[in-house]
Amino acid sequence: MSPEFLATALIVVLAPGTGVIYTLATGLTQGRAAAVAAAVGCTLGIVPAMLAAILGLAAILHASAIAFQVVKFAGVAFLLYLAWATLRDRGALSLDAAPSTRTLRRIATRGALINVLNPKLSIFFLAFLPQFLSGSPATATAEMLSLGGVFMAMTFVVFVGYGTFAALARDRVLSSPRAMTWMRRSFAAAFAGLGLKLAFEKA
Question: Distance between CA atoms of 17 and 52, rounded to whole angstroms?
Fold first, then answer.
């Protein structure tokens, strides 16, 4: 595992994106346990993209405009749904309320779908991972799985860190109804903006 790969992967994981925003929003509104569930979901959502890259399916997405557009607009629709759901959620939040198992499962599922429905992620892995392979065809698959596993582990740790930070800020945010309103609007705008950005992405 080269230092170059670890440094590059860390920069990619730390960069604010849809998963980071989703984890922060979840941590602020529902606490640390929910943020961890979001991090788990976002991390597991990487698996299909990683496997697609290893099996060469990402190349199909890149070559087929129709396949790319179908996955892309499913992702756009889901991000716009998250924006709408964030805006309409006006229920009071409690610092003492612990999310139920069903709620945590739903949070994790949404986190996974954010990455599963992003076709650029598969193409990213197809372009990113091969740069750090040894060059031996016999070990290429094992090496990509190893690199992908490390990338997923880094994603989980960093996202839990983001979510924990957001959860610690809950008491300050929840004490101000105005802050809560602007927080919901900001996260809804972020989801909508990321959805629109994805809509204009090209394979």
Answer: 21
* Dist CA 157 CA 163 (whole Å): 10
d(CA 176, CA 15): 28
End-to-end CA distance of the chain: 29
Check: CB of residue 4 under 8 Å from CB of residue 132. Answer: yes
pLDDT digits (tens, 9 = 90+) for 50-87: 888 777 655 665 566 676 676 677 767 767 776 777 66
- Does the global pTM surpass 0.70? yes
Which tokens belong to 134? 């040894």
Spatial contact of 70 and 198, defined as CB atoms under 8 Å apart: no
The SS3 call for residue 131 is helix
Question: Who's near 167: CB < 8 A, 6+ residues apart?
Answer: 27, 28, 31, 32, 35
The mean predicted confidence, pLDDT, of the chain is: 77
**Axis-axis angle for helices 46-55, 140-168 (nearest 10):** 160
Task: State pLDDT tens for residues 155-179.
Answer: 999 999 999 988 887 766 665 566 6
- For residue 135, pLDDT beyond 80: no
H or E stretch at 160: helix 140-168
Q: How far apart are CA 23 and CA 132, in angstroms?
A: 29
